[in-house]
Structure formats: structure tokens, C-alpha cells
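Fig. S4 source data, part A: sequence.
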Amino acid sequence: MAEKRVVCPLCVRVVLVALTFGGALHAQDFNGSPVDISATLEPIVVSAKVPGMAAVVLRGDEVVAQGVAGVRRKGSPERIALGDEFQMNSATKAMTATLAAMVVEEGKLSWNTTLGDTFSNTVKRMNPEWSSVTLTQLLEHRGGVPNELTQKTRLLRVIFSRGTVVEKRQKIVATILSHKPAYRPGTQYVYSSLDYIIVGVMLEKATGLPWEEFIRKRLWQPLGISSGGFGSPGTSGQMDQPWGHWGRMMVGHPVPPGGFWVHLNTPLFWGPGGNSHMTITDWAKFISLHLRGDPANPHHAEALIGPDSFQTLHRVTPRDFYQGGWFVVSRPWANGHRAGDTGRAISSQGDNFFWHSEAWVAPEIDFAVLIVINQGGPAEKDPVYKASEEAIAALVHRFAPRPTSPKQ
């Protein structure tokens, strides 16, 4: 029923084996127009038997390579184009966390604002065990919120109820908070898009704006993201955008935009937890914001939020590898080999069985690679697992810069 089907350790595992290569190009090789990598992607799409893929490689705010392969829908001749839109799914979580940082900087919330502070007067039957759960705990998936897969019946009631997307989000929050937490808050990591649904409602209460309006005004428009929208891309009954494809059960079967399965799987009110779409080049603008904003980037230049916020959203802690919509890990290829560099990489990923998105960001070397696939389900034996692993590994191997003085 929920947006994020893959448990987070598996998401990280997708690239644990693949991303072990050294780089092959230096920064000076990136002058001029972006390299067309379509020929690199095409055999991967064919071998993995996924319908289509798009990819972008970044150095800072510059697109140094880009390409597409495959078709918009299996069995249809329309080819994927660079300007096509893909569903981002849980990659939207990093955007919601960025919005939260904006609201914190404005003083309308703090990282320690609690559910009691926000909802005690509006959720009439809130279980008192939720009162001390903080905004930070929700962003880390440590707030006691159940995984959405355990909430099927409750979600169905909301999906098919009347009301606006804002009203439905409020219903979800009221329902969740009226029951006991699934575990003692702060003691476990349990991935759940419902954490970010609650954060979205907190932002709506703090700003007075629907999350959809807030993200357009405060994030997408300043970054020049013009293709951003909500739900699956495309027009029902037309082939004007790629279609999603099943990654489980009916593997490879196309899913028409706006249909029953789309609405059931990722309803529109799911936005803060993962229900946006855009072109991969527009998504790259958001990824570049975090690539350059990270304090470890040698060309560090923050925008929209301040350095403390980037530090908070990207930080490494002994207990967790997930912060503010990002998986935070270390990789040899991501090491800048300066004093204090650790090879820290952050990854934003999304999958809802129908679409897959994945970005890997290496601030120490001012480098990022993004892929999107119009099929979902990246478990180890799924076609998307094979395609994403091969594409990211190939692009890291080809484009990640070599250290000038490697220290092994």
C-alpha cells in the first residue's frame, strides 16, 4: 500500500558491491557540452530487461554527462527522452527534510519541536506516548511510527474517503497518533513513509500552506524546477510521458498513469513521504543544491538553507545511517583524500514497485550520479536491482575523479 517497499538496508546494499571502482577522468576533462552516455545505458537496459532509464552525472552544479535508453512503455515504440518525467517516490523525502530545515531556520519550528507541541490541541485522542516525539526523530525514522505496510486497513479507509489531500493527511496523522507507538520512540530505526506524512502536516501547520504549494514556492521555483508535479507523470490514455511498470508480481507489466493501482499504491496525499515527479535534469538541480551545500565539498557554496542545516541533514552518527531523507555511508571512490576526508557519500532513493530513482552524492569530490528507471522493485533478484547496480557502477568508474595524491 505504501510508497517505499524496500527496507533501507537493501537500498544501501544495491551499491555496496558495485561502487568499489576508482575514477577515470579528471575535472579538466569535463569542459564543454555534457557527454552523451546513452550508449552506456542501452546495453544495461537490454540486459536487465527493464523498459527504460535516464541518467545524469554532476560535478557541482554542472551536468557533465547525461543520457537515456529504452522506451516509455514496453511494447510501444516511443523512446525515452531526456525531458521525460519520472516518479521520484521516496527521493522526495530529502526535499521534505529540506523544507523542514527552512521552517526551522525561520523559527517556526525547531528540530526538537514535539508532536505534543504540534498536535495536542488538534488531535483529540492522541496517545500520550507520542507527546515527546521530536521532528528530528521523525526525519530519522526513529519516532515510534509503524511501517506503513502494517497500516493497510487504515490507509485504505483514508484513500477512499472524501476530502482534499491536506484533509486526508490530517486524517492519517490523527489515526496514527490515536494508537500507541509501534515501538518506544528513539530506541529503533523503522523505515516508514508515515514519518514524513506527519512531518508534512507539521510543516502545513507551521506555514499555513499545503505541502504541495510550499514545495513549489520555496524549493522548486527557486531552483528552476519547472517539471515538478505530483502523482504519476503523464496523461491517462496517452503516451506523452513514460509509464511505470510492475517490479513484483506482474514483472514488467505497464501501469497506466492515473489508474486504480497507481492511486492505491501511492495516493496523492502521500506527497511529503514520496509522491512527486519531474525530469531527471530538474532533479539534478536539487541534488546539486545538496552536493555543493555540504560542508565537506571543496567548492562549498550553500543556498536556500544555511550551513548548519546542511550539516544536520547530512551528518554521520554512531547509531544511524539515515538522516533527513538521505542514507549516509562511506565509499572509497567518494574519498577526496584531503586531511579529514572520510569518503562519506549520501544517497537519496525511491521505489514504489512501479518506478525507481537513485542518486549518489560524494561531496568530498564534488561529484554525483543520478538514475531513474520506469520500473520498480529493487530487491536483489529484480531486474531494477541489476540495472541500477550496473549503471551506477559504470558511471562512477568512468566519471568519478581520481585523487591527485591517493592515500591507500
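Fig. S4 source data, part B ends here. Residues 383-399 form the longest helix (17 residues).
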